Structure formats: C-alpha cells, structure tokens
Amino acid sequence: MTTARLDAPAARSAEVRSITLDADGVTLSALLALPAHRPPRATIVALHGAGMSAAYFDGPAHPETSFLAIAASLGFAAVALDRPGYGHSTRQLPQGQGVVEQAATLTASLRCLTARFETGAGILLLAHSFGSKPALRIAADGALPELLGLDLSGCGDEYAVPPTEQVTRAARQRLNWGPLRLYPPGTFQTGAAALAPTPPRESADVARWPEMFADLAGRIRIPVRFTFAEYERWWSHDRRALARLRSRLHEAPRVLIDHQHDAGHNISLGWTARAYHLRVLGFAEECLWRRGTGKEHRP
C-alpha cells in the first residue's frame, strides 16, 4: 500500500471569513462563505464531528477539499460552526454540552444567523460524525420551519465498535482515517488545524446515542441523506443495518443512503471530498425543489 506524501499545504480559501453568532448568551465562532455578486439561493450550515473544528469544512490541506468554497461558488451561503464547547465557546463551556443542550444552543445560533444574514430559501444542515447527533435532534424538535433537510456522514444508529470498548491510539487512527493514500499531501500537518479537544460532556453522550436515535427518529419530517464512506468502520452499514436505519425514519418524506468510494470516516478531508460535496449540493437542490413544489411533507 502506498502512503500519502506530506508536502507543503495549499493556502486557505480566500472567500472564507470568520464570524461569531450569539446563541442565547453563548458566543459560537464560525466560518462564513458567501456567493459573489448575488444573494444566496439557500444556506448550508455545517457541523463538525468530535475532536474537530469548523476548519474541517474549509480544506485545511488542499483547496479542492473546501466545502465552504465550492458551496459559495455554486450560489449557496455556507457556514461552518464551531459546535458548543469548541472554538470561541470553550471559554463559556469548558465542559461542552450534551446532544440535547447542543441542539438548543445551535438552534439559537441559527436564529441569530437568519436575523443577521440573507439566507435565501432556507437552511440545510450538513453534519459529520458527532455533529450529526444534534443535527438530528434539531430536526426532530421541529423548531426551525426554514430547515430544508439534513445531509449526514459518519453517523448511523448502530455502532460497529461498542463505545465502551477500549481502543488503542493506532486502532483509533485507522477508524478515523482509513488508508493514508486517500488524503492529499499535507493532511496530517495542516490538517491538525482542524483538530480540537473533545469536551467531556459531549463524550458522555456517546454511549447513549442508539437509545436517543430510537426516540427521535420517528419525529423527523424533512428529507434526510446519509453517506457512509467505503472505509467507514465506526458504524454498521451493511444491508440489515441500513434497512433498520431507513425504517426508523418513517415520517421523513425522503431518506437517501449513499456510499462514497475511496473515502475514510473523515470524508471531507480526502481526495474524494469534492465528489462528496457536489452530491451534498445536489441534495440541497432537490430539497429546494421539494420545498418550492410543496412536496417536503408526506401527503
């Protein structure tokens, strides 16, 4: 097996700027990219996984892997939030928050976002790994009528590796990354800019997720798309597991389950990130069409 070369990194996307959002007194940091010379068609809000930061979505090792840049170039506003307990909010929330609290804080930050910026026809939540958990809770709570859909990766409802199992550092690296050849040169140097400590209260909710998902899945009434990487090893995604996952989302008007070849768990950092991100934007287009035609809900 060949391994990735660790060459000098590419420059960060010039279109992206840092902002902060107020979430009922909690200040969340974020990265924002806006389309040039036109209002956004819609807004995609991206939520990173555990141990990462908003920079995960801005191609820290190679500009072609930046979701923020490609979304803005195709007419969408794109916002990558540092979830509660990460970035600026570590000062106020050094222990972080659990899934339910994060969902409430993030919902408040989205209200601030829509009050301050033009968001177009609505908001699609793009979430990776642990970020998918508060995203699903936000959708289940139904407090944001402008929510168009959910696009999730690196998350399911059934762990392939029990969360109570002790995993060595080497095994954890294989679970998170898969083969190193999947990533651009410099990923494991500049990619460190996207890493962040995982807050304790967030970690405490990991083992409870299957129970939590079973409780909230039936309350989700917007389109949902899951993507599982070829080398995804944290989550079960065989035919039986995916059939059960789909069946639990019985109120969602549409449930798509896709697979991304030549990708590991950290799907937005690899060579195939651009292909994956284009599919995210395609799903966003479909959600816009469904909302425009009144087909976002089951008859």
UniProtKB/TrEMBL annotation:
Domain AB hydrolase-1 span(s) in chain numbering: 44-249
Keyword tags: Hydrolase
Pfam families: Abhydrolase_6 (PF12697)
Keyword Hydrolase attached: yes
Single GO molecular function: hydrolase activity
Gene3D superfamilies tied to this protein: alpha/beta hydrolase
Residues spanning the membrane: none
Domain of life where this protein originates: Bacteria
Protein name: Alpha/beta hydrolase
